[in-house]
Structures are given as C-alpha cells and as structure tokens.
Amino acid sequence: MKDVLTKPIDRAVKFGAEYAEAREETLFKTMLTMKEGRVEAAKQGVEKGVALRVLVNGAWGFASVGSVDGEILTTAVLDACKMAKAASLRLKNPIKLAKTPIVEDQVKIKPKKNPAEINMEDKIKTSSAINKSTLSFDKRVKSCTIDYLDLTGSSAFMNSEGTHIEQDKLYVWARITASATQKGIFAFSREEIGSTAGYELFDREPPEELGKKLAERATGQLEAKTPKGGSFPVVLGPNVVGVFVHEAFGHLAEADLALSGGVLANNLNKKIASDLVTFYDDGTIDGAFGSFQYDDEGVRTKKTALIKDGVVVGLMHNLETAQKFNAEPSGNARAEDFRVEPIIRMRNTYMAPRDQSLEELIEGIQFGYFFKSFRGGQANVDGTFQVGIQEGNEIVKGEIGEPVRNASISGSTLETLFKVDAVGKDFELGAGRCGKGQTAFVCDGGPHIRVKEVMVGGSA
Amino acid sequence: MVALSKEEMLNLAQNATTTAKRNGATEAETYVYEGESTSIGLERGQITKSSKTIDRGLGIRVIVDKSIGFAYTNILDKQTVVEDTIIKAIHAARASKPDPDWHELPTNKTYASVGKTYDEKIANLCPEDLVNLTSTMLNAAIQTDKRILAIEGGSGAGYLSTAINNSNGISAFDRGTMIECSIATVAKEGNKVTPVCFEFNAERNYNVNPEWVGKEAARLALSALKTKRVETKTTKLILTQFALQELLYYTLINAVKAENVQRNQSPFKNKIGKRVASENVTIHDNGSLPGGLRTSMFDGEGSPKQKTLVVEKGVLRNFLYDNYTAKKEGVESTGNASRAGYLSTPNTEATNFHITPGSKTKEQLMAEVNDGLIAYYLQGAHSSNPVSGEFSVVATPAWKIKKGEIAHCSRGIMLAGNIFEVLKNVTMIANNERQIGQLVSPWILVENVRVIGN
To answer: Quick one: B146 and B238 in the same domain?
Structure first.
C-alpha cells in the first residue's frame, strides 16, 4: 500500500501543500438485524477507499474516493489541493499544525475469537439466544430488536512528514432494545455492548443475562410512577455518570468545541468542579470499545487527564488545535471511515472512583432519586446538558424506594460538577456510539456518585 | 472519477440480479447508488476547509426459500468482487432462517415523474461558487452585530443517482441534486455566551438564500443574550419547525410506521378512523412533493413514491408501509422504504412529512399568546419514550411571549409531556411553511404544556 499512497502525497507536495496525508482502508462488515427472533436480513459487506487530506496556504482540502487506482488518486488529490487553494483566499488566520514524532509501525490484532472467522449461523444463534431470554422473561415484553455488527479490516496511513502506519481494525458491537406494555402503558429499554478484543465479548456478556437485564428494565417501568419536577439530590449509577461525563463534560473538552465559544476555553487550569471530580479520556484500555493504537493523524493514543481533583488539566486535541493551544496532540483525531476527514472524538471517557459505598451515598438523602441507566443525553456548547433516564427509583429516608419512569436531569454542567459531594468506590465502563456528524465507537463510565441537587424533569 | 451514466447504472443492477438468480437465488434485487458531494466549511469566523467525496457501490438483496440475505460492495470495477458479493448475499440468506411472512419483492409498476428534484446548475457547480455562497452567509451573520461569533457552518452541493433492478421486472433510474448552507452562531457579551443558534437552507434547486440564513442565525443569537427566569407552570407554547421536527421524529413518525404497529410498538394500533390529534391537524406523507428534500420517483425497493393521507382533521387515516409490511397485511406499499445508500437494506421511513398549513401568519399566531413561550431548539428529544410518546426535554433556549411579543429569552427550561397529548392540544397552525429534514410544516400553537422553570 506504501507505493499507492506515496504518489498522491508527493503530488500534493509538488502542488505546494504544506502537509498531505493519505489513509487507505479496507473494511469487512457483518450485520444482523433480528426482530422478535426473525432475521430481517443477514448482511455482509466489503468496502475499500482512500481519504486524502492536504493543507494548502493554511486551508484544508479533503477528497475521498472508493478506489486505489493511481490515476484516480492523483486526480482526487489535485482536486483537494485546488479546492483548498480556493477556500484559502479569504483566510485571516491560516491553519498550522503541531509537530509530532515520525512513526513507522505495524499494529496487528490477535483476537481470541476473530469475528471474521465465526460463521453467520453462529452469529444468528447468539442473537437468537438474546432474543429468547428477553421475550421469555415476562409476557408483558412485546418486542425485541437486536442489531449486531462486526467490523474487521485494516488501515494504512502515510503523511508528508514521513509517518507510515498500518493497523488492523476490529470491532464487535450489539444493541438490544425491548418494549413492554400493560394497560396502555408503554415502556422501552435499551442496552449497548461493544469491544475491540473479539467475539469473546459474548463470553463476558452472556446472551441469557443480557436478555434478562433488558426485560427487567422494560417491565420495571410498567409499575413505575413519573417523578416530580424540580431540584432534588440524586445518586447516579455508573451508566448515567458515564453519559454525563461524555455528553455534559466530554464534548466541552473537545478542543475544537472549546475554541468555538465553549465554556472550557477560558477555564484551563481553573477549578470548575468539586475536589472529588477527576475525569480521563483514555485510548489505552485493552479491548475497550473506544481504544486504538494510533489515531487517524498518525498520533499514538494515550491516557489524557481532563479534570484532576476539580481542576481542568487538559483538553482533547488534534494536530490543529494542539498547535493553537500550544499543547501535545492527544491522539483524539478519528475518522469513521475513508469517506470522511478525522475530527476530534472521545475514546473511553470516565470519572475516576474514590472510596464510598453505594449505601453511604444514599443514606443521607431524605428525598431524592436514584438514576441507574440512561436513555439518551445531549449537551450544548453553552454548558447546559440533558440526560434522559430509562431506569430509576425514588430515594426516601436514606433507602431506595419506588421505581420512576421517563425522568430526565438537566442543568449547567459546571454548576453540577461543583455539586458532586460523594463519589463511590465501584467502577464500570459501558460501550456506546457517539454522533458528531460521524459515528465513533466509544466507552464511558465511572463509579456511583451523589449530586447535592440537580433539576429533575418529570412527565406532565 | 466521472459519474456513471444511466445506462451504466442500470446495466450494473441488471447484471447483478441476473447473476444472483443464476447462482440459486429465488428472488434478487440490486440497488446501485452513486453520490458526489462538494462542500466548503467555516470554523470560528473564517472559511477553513473544503471537501469532495465520491461514493458509489451496489447492495444486493437475495431471497432463498423465504430467507433473506444482503451484501454490498463499493468495488465495482472488478467483476470478481461483484460476483463474490452476490455469492456472499446468497450465503447469508442460506445461513439465515426462513421468514414465513415473506411474500415477494415488489412487482413492476409505472412511475409518475416528479418535479424540481434535479438542477443542472448544482450538478455543474464549482468549489469557488460555494466559497462565495459561504462567504455571503458568513458576512451577513457577523456584520449584523459585533457580538456575533460564527462557530461553524458551510455550504454543500450534492448529486446522487440510484438504479434499482429486481427479478420481478423492476428496472428504474432516478437522479437528483441538493444544495444547502448552514451556520451556527453564538452571541458573546463579557463572559456571557448564548446557546448555539442555528439556521440553514436546503433546496433541490439552486435557489438557496445564504444572506437570510446568516442574518436569521445572528438575530436569534442576539435575542438570546437578554435572559430572565420563568416560573414552573402549564402554558401556551409555539413550536417552530426545528422543535417540532425533533419531537415528532422520535414519536409520531415512529407511531405511524406500519412495522411498529405490527410489532405492538405503536400507540396507534387499532386507531385507524379514531381521533389522534386536534381537528386542526392534517398530515400527508408526500414522497412526490415538488422540490421536497425526500422526493424521488421510487423508494428504496422500487415502489413508486406517493402522497399518503396520514391524519385528516385529527383522525388517523393511514400507516406508512414498505413492501414487506404491506404484503403482510395484504395492502399496497406506500413507497416508504428508505436506504442509507448501498450499505443498507430498506427501512420504513417517512418521506416529506407534511403538516397542512393554516391561514394565519406567524405574527397572528404570536398575537394569540398573551403569556407563553416559543421554542426553537430542543435538547434531548432523542431520549423521548418512542413507544409512549412521553418526552422531557430542555429548550435551549426558549423565548417568553407576553401580549403577542417576544419579551425575553430564558435558558434551561424543561418541557415535559406526551406528544400525543400535545397533538390533541394544537389550537392553531400558521402559514409559514418550511422543510426541516423530513418535516414540512409551519409553526404550531399548542396549549397546556408543562414548563418546568428555572
């Protein structure tokens, strides 16, 4: 692949590009959608293409083609150069890039169970087992949808600085949703699992237990009441802490968003959270869904501290923002595939545990809520967040009380971080997919935590 | 890479279908897709990037004794890869389980021509045109006021073509164009930053208005600077198209998909002919709407797109079907099979979900509100309960209306309720129709919405 990619890079440099990179990917995917045990379609795909990116006069040009043909790549890279030149005409602040070490490396993945070597029949069997345990748990469970994906393949990256990296890719992912109904009440539950280790994911997450968890989560809501709206103390489970870390804080710590009027740009090295709060974005956790060796700008991944004991200590960078902040590139530049350019994305983002038990977190609360798992979350660059809850309970006089459904929490991220007044000693990481125009595979998580007060929105 | 011609696309599709049949498929369907897009991006007040993407490939769905398999590839220049892909689809079907509800692929139909979906001017656009367009929009935004920051945005032009062929005699080709521009702004005063205020314009023909987009985004951001708290109460609410699209996408649009009805995931099961919304509400799903963003001759399975009456004066009339869900009930597909290019099998999706406009202007709609709110952007609508319609979202931001006029902005307000109750409380619909994603709608006024203040 080295020869194929060298030519367009040389051509761009000859055109006058300050920087050029080429990324070839060959991807094999298997996908399944199962609805109530019916295989909607068993799917397989192969795709191949090259992403070319150039910096000309301080502006970016990008081109993507589904081909490795030399002539097509040359035309594409020249298109990218000309477009970049056109885009640069009104540029006041030309883009510059941080320097990174030149790398020559090959990354091979050796999974225990390679999904590419497991036949379709066995993958269907795994989904069938999840489906069966979900639907057979309780007759009020009416539907079960399973989406399964595995992706294997490789990428080759080269740039005009001399870096050349070839990496294997491997992802296994499943999302299961279930619905339950009773007397006109509809409840809905979801769960996602994912790994970069291999198909052994299903040994760690046995299908029978997954199905049971989904069914319990859906039927539990049928008996639940809607919460009161207003400000209350809450205890958040690792799953909700994870989505809070990711959505409410993580996106603000992406340096591109921080630069775009986000609230963190002016808060570097300042205290923005209680002493108990420490957050990391870590691409080095073995087998975790957000882990990889090198990002799509050829920078080695690392464990990046974002908040330490309440103080903002770092942001997530690509080459461009690292130069602007005079920081080290953190290895956060990721592209979904060869069709798109790399942008700053999270990896495995989590809150570090401290020393308290769940009982200790709950015991002091007269009235509040315990939110175990989320349905979705979203944040705005002004620092407001919203997290929808699928599974929760009241806390009454220091004890877990009746279940509640369709709750959500919201508020200002920074205010809420100061209100974290107890952090548990447990820890869980969950897999998910993050959308920022492109999809990225990530993990998020943390321990159980207590927040002194947060706005709880109930249903009317 | 030069775009494939109609004949090349149709031949690719036909050859793949024939090869699949020859290799043992009971039925076969090939979908060939080509998309070319050029875009110019702005970040932090200046144009910084450009991109050109060419993506083409084919997806083949085969049925072997009622078992369904699918495979795709973007490597079309190697006959062996295409043949391997067809064999993979057949393997996938053989590994799968038969579906007793499978009937057959769609059969040959005639298509009506659709209007205003292709513009030669967009297909022939050069990057410099998009640089100028983006620049016009950017200048319109930042020249409105010194406090305006343009965070991101840009413009893009796209050409896409599809060909479909199946073993029941369907063979069709369609192409279309799209141009869009968008900008996200905030207003900054001292340490105060407003939430992101966003505007965009997308058209099938070359008639976008970048100046309006820039000015409108800036106007919204500026009006979000002055904030006051609002109290918790039940109130009147005007939903603009952005907010309505967010709320309906995850709730009502799912509820009218036949698949969800058949799978007991819709509250509208057994509700055809029943009242589900206020009598002010009439909705069509119109896949042949002239110039509609989701308009084309045929859907992802080659069924003709059409205009389907979904809600008539508040009464539920029809569900949205693809071929599979329609044949399961012995009815005709409504042309709602959607595909994500060549990479996916068809899914049921609304096309242009069109709420019939009323006769009042938006100013007259505002005048109806003595004390209430207007919401543009919502946060968290995707966490709505998709089955029950219950939602609990944050308006980022919303504006307080007093005596028919915008009084001030308010942040962090939560709106909670059930979308199906909201639809019953629609008291007036304006005439300022526009399209956002699937939704084509004017502003609507609803009563009795629970607002949790700050």
So the answer is: no
From B188, B221, B254, give the residue that closes a domain.
B221
Cβ–Cβ below 8 Å for A181 and B127: no
Arithmetic mean of pLDDT over chain B: 94
Buried b (16+ CB within 10 A) or exposed e, A119-146: ebeebbebbbbbbebbbebeebbbbbbb
Domain that residue A275 falls in = 230-457
Of the three residues B183, B202, B221, the one that is the final residue of a domain is B221
Give me the residues paired with residue A428 across strands. A446
Does residue B40 belong to the interface with chain A, where contact is any CB pair within 8 Å?
Answer: yes
Contact yes or no for B388 and A187 at CB 8 A: yes
Residue B196 lies in a domain: yes
Residue of A nearest to B1 (CA): A72
Residues B62 and B177 in one domain: yes
Q: What is the CA radius of gyration of chain B?
A: 24
Q: Which of B55, B195, B264 sits opposite A142 (nearest CB)?
A: B264
Of A89, A229, A339, the CB nearest to B452: A229
Q: Residues A202, A207, A211, CA angle at the centre, nearest 5°?
A: 140
Please state the pTM of the whole predicted model.
0.93
| Among A16, A22, A25, A20, CA closest to A3 | A22
- Asked if B175 and B108 sit in the same domain, the reply is yes
Is the CB of residue B56 less than 8 Å away from at least one CB of chain A?
A: yes
pLDDT, mean of each 10-residue run, chain A (460 residues) = 94 98 98 94 94 98 96 96 95 95 96 96 97 97 96 98 98 96 88 97 96 95 89 97 95 91 84 97 98 98 98 97 96 98 98 97 96 87 85 96 91 94 97 94 98 81
ipTM over 0.90: yes
Distance CA B310, CA A459 (A): 27
pLDDT, tens digit, for every residue of B402-428? 999 999 999 888 898 889 999 999 999
Residues of the domain holding B401? 226-454
Query: Do both A235 and A186 map to the same domain?
Result: no
Partner-chain contact B196 A459, CB within 8 Å: no
Q: CB of B223 within 8 Å of any CB in chain A?
A: no
- The 10s digit of each residue's pLDDT in B116-140 is 999 999 999 999 999 999 999 999 9
Contact yes or no for B75 and A80 at CB 8 A: no
CA A386 vs. chain centroid, Å, equals 17
Residues shown for chain A: 460
pLDDT tens, position by position, B10-55: 999 999 999 999 999 999 999 999 999 999 999 999 999 999 999 9
